[in-house]
Amino acid sequence: MNFQQKLKNWQELLNLRLEQALPASSVQPEVLHQAMRHSMNAGGKRLRPILVLAAHEIFPNPVDPLPAAIAIECIHTYSLIHDDLPAMDNSDLRRGEPSCHKAFDEATAILAGDALQPLAFEILANAYAGDPQLGLDLVCMLSRTAGSQKLVGGQMQDLLSEGNDPDEESLSYIHSNKTAAMIEASLQMGFRVGKEGRNSKKLIQIGRVGHSLGLAFQAVDDLLDVTQTTAQLGKDAHHDSESGKITWVSLKGENEARLLAAQHTENALQTLNAVGGDCQFLQDLIQYMLNREF
Question: pTM for this structure?
Answer without folding.
Answer: 0.94
